[in-house]
Design a protein that fits this description.
The complex is a heterodimer.
Chain A: H1 3-11, H2 27-39, H3 43-55, H4 62-72, H5 74-83, H6 91-98, H7 109-124, E1 142-146, H8 151-176, H9 183-195, H10 200-213, E2 220-221, E3 233-237, E4 241-243, H11 251-271, E5 280-281, E6 289-292, E7 297-299, E8 305-306, H12 310-324, H13 328-338, E9 340-341, H14 344-359, H15 366-378, E10 382-383, H16 386-406, H17 417-420
Parallel strand pairs in A: 2-7
Antiparallel strand pairs in A: 1-3, 4-6, 5-8, 6-7, 9-10
Helix pairs in contact in A: 1-2, 2-8, 4-5, 4-6, 8-9, 11-16, 12-13, 13-14, 14-15
Chain B: H1 2-11, H2 31-39, H3 41-50
Classes of the chains: A alpha+beta, B mainly alpha.
Chain lengths: 421, 52
């Protein structure tokens, strides 16, 4: 693929719609990164992507071009879902990105039938379409989650590019005079986590853990696994509902849903006293959050979870306590529990500045905490474990979804997360 | 934050019999943490007024 042709294609895409004004200085870097990423793809795949873009009308909005591009690349698809409700983005782009929360064009059932018969027939000698629970003899409606053909290869190809792109971004960052950031480390973490997206056996384990974790939460539904799962098929309870952002409920009903979301996905795991079995859903985009007919919130797709252990949760609270007491040393000690300090002096300065904000009246809540963590990560002062990075990504997604559900902005825990993610 | 407050209140009945450094009884705060908060109030006030 000719570099200039690809670069010309990007002339048609206005990155101002993708990268908010607050991060405008990063637009050239994002452009370079996307070009590097696309040029690293298999020639046949890249040709198909470019041909698809060229077939679009020349005057089409950049938002649609980006979404068409994102649908072709699993990693970009995931990125689009993460930021789809971020209110700092162009409204049309957000609306387009939210289309990525749906599965897109269906795979013909005939193509799936063979794989299903092979997998499920071998496990349970099942007749496709009919399964009766032995105790109740009632028909059960279920869902089979199957990976699209070729998706694993595509993902691994893209993750291999991710492994190289960090050093390239570092080089370009210097060229553009942008602040220091550990691109390689962040992309490496994200890569390893995205690799879990195609590990259905991991998701089944997560569903099992989440089912037990939310067993005492009547307002929350986690799909129940059926016993005939395999490594390449997840069989589970079917959930009939609509996306939380399209519930059609009254304002009061939407507020109740928003409260349930915040309580179930943030407060319950954060305040849990359990040592183990506490999971944060790390991919809470609206496509994974449905309102059922009986008013419960169904939490779907447990491929990505962040397991924040009790020590890390305690550390987070110690940071808040340190903020309330204006105690810089206490916060620094707690941060050492949460991540690996790389620049102790820088950490102390950043914490002192954050504490000064509290002294001047800023509420030391989740928003204050995430802003501090983002600053430490962006400045390469503290290296966070994957689970914490994932939790931060989940907060970004969740804050946008809750804002859309309740109709109110939830800036207090959005912070500056785009930089960190 | 509000749910953390309720979690803290829910753990209060168990605190008298809990190990002083256990953070398993509400809001991830031990009795030592709470005592430290109370004992540190003058220092907190001083930091507030002096900004140091």
């Amino acid at each position: 693929m000719n570099h200039s042709l690809l670069a010309g294609l990007f002339e048609l895409i206005d990155l101002a719609e993708l990268v908010p004004a607050s991060h405008a200085a990063y637009r050239p870097l994002v452009r370079d990164g996307l070009l590097y990423f696309l040029e690293g793809l298999e020639p046949a795949r890249l040709d198909a992507i470019v041909a698809e873009q060229l077939a679009l009308p020349p005057v089409i909005r950049s938002a649609l071009r980006l979404v068409v591009l994102f649908r072709r690349c699993p990693t970009l698809h995931k990125l689009g879902q993460v930021v789809a409700h971020d209110r700092r983005l162009d409204p049309e782009l957000r609306e387009r990105l939210q289309e990525l929360e749906s599965t897109g064009s269906p795979t013909p059932i005939g193509d799936l039938d063979i794989a299903l018969r092979r997998e499920l027939g071998a496990v349970a000698n099942l007749e496709i379409g009919v399964w009766r629970e032995s105790v109740t003899a009632r028909p059960q409606r279920g869902v089979l989650k199957i990976l699209r053909e070729g998706i694993v290869d595509k993902l691994h190809e893209e993750l291999a590019i991710f492994a190289e792109i960090g050093s390239y971004l570092e080089e370009r960052r210097l060229h553009y005079g942008l602040p220091e950031f550990d691109y390689a480390g962040a992309l490496d973490s994200v890569s390893r986590l995205l690799a879990n997206e195609v590990r259905l056996d991991h998701e089944q384990r997560n569903l099992d853990v989440a089912g037990r974790f939310y067993a005492g939460s009547p307002a929350v539904l986690v799909p129940r696994l059926f016993p005939f799962c395999t490594d390449s098929i997840t069989a589970m309870e079917r959930v009939d509902g609509v996306k939380v952002t399209e519930s059609g409920l009254t304002p009061a009903g939407r507020r109740r849903i928003a409260e349930t979301l915040a309580g179930a996905l943030l407060a319950k795991p954060l305040w849990s006293r359990a040592e183990t079995g506490v999971v944060f859903h790390a991919d809470p985009h609206a496509g994974n959050l449905h309102v059922t007919q009986d008013g419960r919130v169904a939490i779907l797709d447990w491929a990505l979870v962040a397991e924040i252990d009790k020590r890390q949760r305690e550390a987070a609270i110690q940071i808040i306590v340190g903020a309330v007491t204006l105690d810089v040393e206490r916060i620094c000690r707690a941060l050492e529990e949460l991540g690996e300090p790389l620049d102790p002096e820088g950490i102390k300065q950043a914490v002192s500045a954050a504490v000064e904000q509290v002294r001047r009246g800023k509420f030391p809540g989740i928003g204050w905490l995430t802003a501090l963590l983002d600053q430490l990560a962006a400045g390469r002062m503290l290296r966070f474990p994957e689970a914490v990075i994932l939790f931060r990504k989940a907060l970004l997604t969740l804050s946008g979804v809750i804002a859309d559900v309740s109709g109110r902005a939830v800036d207090r825990f959005r912070g500056h997360a785009v930089g960190m993610v | 934050m509000l749910s953390g407050w309720f979690d803290f209140l829910g753990g209060l009945p168990y605190r008298p019999t809990a190990a002083v450094d256990s953070r398993s009884h509400g809001a991830h705060l031990s009795n030592v943490d709470l005592f430290g908060l109370w004992a540190g109030l003058p220092a907190t006030a001083a930091r507030f007024w002096t900004g140091r």
